[in-house]
Design a protein that fits this description.
The protein is of the alpha/beta class and 500 residues long. It has 16 helices and 24 strands. It has an 11-stranded mixed sheet with strand order 9-8-7-10-6-11-12-13-14-15-16, with helices on both faces. It has a 6-stranded mixed sheet with strand order 17-18-22-19-20-21, with helices on both faces. A 5-stranded mixed sheet has the order 1-5-4-3-2.
Length: 500
């Protein structure tokens, strides 16, 4: 492929400011990392949040790059060079063209929101596979292509990696890609070059304000997934939006494509009626644009009713019948790290969940409260180098719904874990004014905290271990260590002398 052919992908999308040299030069690789530049590669210099790729142009040239795209003026080079208005946005379009415009050759389902993205994508995948489709998955837990599963470095990968993964899906025979679309990815144009068929909005609550600064900025990033549906050449697009969340109504007003709304409390196109919740799962009647039908799911909690409704909307839009949906939902057992029970023969319940925001923690706790017959013992912490404003709010939420609260480390990263706990403790102390009977402790060592929670539990208590879910690591400083809440909980139970 030539550089000139790749540049066609920018027409009407990214303004080209300057061209020099022979644009018919062949491009056999594309990169935005100077360390991977090689012969006949195109290097795209991108201004990132922490690193400016323009500083590494000379390194890319030494590595053999034969063409350059940048947004700053570059002098003293003889190779083909193109200056664009926004090289970060250009990167995705150039990558898409290089990899054969894969999103145009596959059905694209994008799910965004603060909470529920992972579960919704997993349910979507199961429902669409029930139609006989080959479905690829990109999200927080893993990237799945056919029988191949790769650990996920980011919820939504970088622009070039995303295009490469989509191209691999096409090559492997996938007909649909279901992916979580993070606010970071949208704000950083990682999804430029992708054309979606369906976009889902789950909810918006406080998170990532270390990056977005304000809730409005956070919302505007999410909104880009929906306004972007106006672009491209695909037909039969749809937005599926939760209107029990006030932000959902704003998205409905801005949507350039047909919308199906979903809700439990508001008037909507998709609703759940006669909802019944238990520790074994959920049943309800789905009221939909194609009629009413019953749903029986192993997923637990009201929040999962929302996730199921969203996925049912996707499946109906993609041509599924109620019978196909019923069967696929019934066959799906669980989602890794989302209200995942740890069962090692103990007479009490242990649940591991990814809840790491105030809203997600409240959803987890209210689900537990609705199901409980004994005490709720909650173990959680807050990640370091992330939104600090949510820490006291999460502490207050834990006290509001728990009988015992154990504060511990999450992924402290480069922050002091004790300092993080002190910030969470502010909310705990505030909550104790209303519920002084709640017991709480600070145990910075997460393993010891989980062991203490398990040691305290008796039948019919419920132990909730929140914040990390599927993650099998803990980040302390800049190092990543193996740590899986599920393994630690299971070992703690076995230390009690309980045998299955």
């Amino acid at each position: 492929m030539t550089l000139a052919t790749m540049l066609q992908a920018l027409d009407g999308r990214v303004k080209v400011l300057e061209r020099q040299g022979d644009l018919s030069v062949a491009v056999k690789a594309i990169t935005d990392d100077s360390r991977t530049a090689s012969s006949q590669s195109l290097f795209v210099a991108v201004k990132g949040e922490r690193v400016d790729g323009h500083r590494f142009i000379s390194a890319a040239l030494k590595g053999g790059a034969s063409a350059l795209v940048a947004q700053e003026r570059v002098s003293g080079i003889s190779l083909p060079f193109v200056r664009v208005e926004d090289s970060r946005r250009a990167l995705g379009f150039l990558g898409s063209r290089f990899y054969g415009d894969p999103s145009s050759r596959i059905r694209m389902i994008g799910v965004t929101g603060t909470n529920g993205k992972t579960t919704t994508t997993y349910v979507c995948k199961s429902l669409l596979e029930g139609l006989g489709r080959q479905v690829g998955l990109i999200g927080t837990v893993a990237y799945q292509i056919g029988t191949s599963t790769m650990p996920a470095a980011h919820t939504t990968p970088g622009a070039l990696e995303l295009q490469r993964l989509l191209a691999e899906m096409v090559t492997s025979g996938c007909t649909t890609a279901v992916m979580e679309v993070s606010s970071h990815a949208l704000a950083q144009d990682r999804t430029s070059g992708c054309e979606y068929d369906v976009a889902v909005f789950s909810n918006l609550t406080q998170d990532h304000l270390d990056f977005h600064k304000t809730m409005e900025d956070y919302f505007q990033a999410k909104l880009r997934l929906f306004t972007g549906l106006a672009e491209g050449h695909k037909r039969n697009k749809r937005a599926i939006i939760n209107v029990d969340d006030s932000h959902g109504n704003r998205i409905v007003e801005c949507s350039p494509v047909p919308v199906w709304t979903y809700a439990l409390k508001s008037k909507a196109d998709l609703r759940a009626e006669e909802v019944r919740l238990s520790i074994r799962g959920t049943t309800f009647t789905a009221a939909t644009p194609v009629g009413n039908f019953s749903i029986e799911s192993h997923l637990v909690g009201e929040h999962n009713v929302y996730n199921l409704l969203a996925a049912i909307g996707v499946a109906l839009h993609e041509g599924a019948t109620p019978d196909q949906i019923r069967l696929a939902v019934g066959n799906m057992l669980n989602v890794p790290g989302r209200f995942e029970r740890v069962m090692a023969g103990q007479p009490f319940t242990v649940v591991v969940d990814y809840a790491h925001t105030e809203d997600a923690l409240v959803r987890l706790l209210t689900t537990a409260e609705a199901l409980k017959t004994g005490r709720i013992i909650t173990v959680f912490g807050c990640g370091g180098d992330r939104d600090r404003g949510k820490r006291p709010k999460m502490g207050a939420a834990a006290v509001r719904y728990s009988d015992v609260v154990i504060l511990t480390s999450d992924n402290p990263r480069t922050e002091d874990s004790h300092a993080i706990l002190e910030q969470v403790e502010v909310g705990v102390v505030e909550g104790l004014r209303q519920r002084p009977h709640v017991q709480y402790r600070k145990i910075a060592d997460r393993r010891q905290a989980i062991q203490e929670a398990v040691r305290q539990a008796q039948s019919p208590d419920m132990v909730l271990i929140a914040g990390k879910g599927h993650e099998d690591y803990q980040i302390v400083g800049t190092e990543k260590f193996h740590f899986d809440d599920r393994e630690v909980a299971r070992n703690a139970i076995q230390r009690l002398g309980i045998r299955v």
